[in-house]
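Trying the structure run again after the queue cleared.
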Amino acid sequence: MSMTAVGATNVGSVVVNFDKNLRTNLKEKSLLPGEFSQLSYKALSPRLAGVPLKRGQEVGGFRLGSTVVLVFSAPHSFKFAVEPEQTVKMGQALGFVHS
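Done. Tokens:
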């Protein structure tokens, strides 16, 4: 699974709860047009390829809001519990695996 926090124009910052040292939207670090920066936590847990989180655990948040892109592989029996463009709140189920 991959989760990407996408900060819109003028978003104050992105906060990741398990990385207290992360600082985003720093004025002193400017990127040239077409450049981007990224951060990966894969090395923190080689077995899980990232940071293990519990079901419903808050990952972080935005200071002023924005959006999250979530990409995952699901079994054929997966059924979404949300509709396109629906606002999702922390802890809300995105879907269920039916047997």
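The beta strands are 2-6, 13-16, 60-63, 67-71, 78-80, 95-97. Worth checking whether this holds up in the mutant runs.
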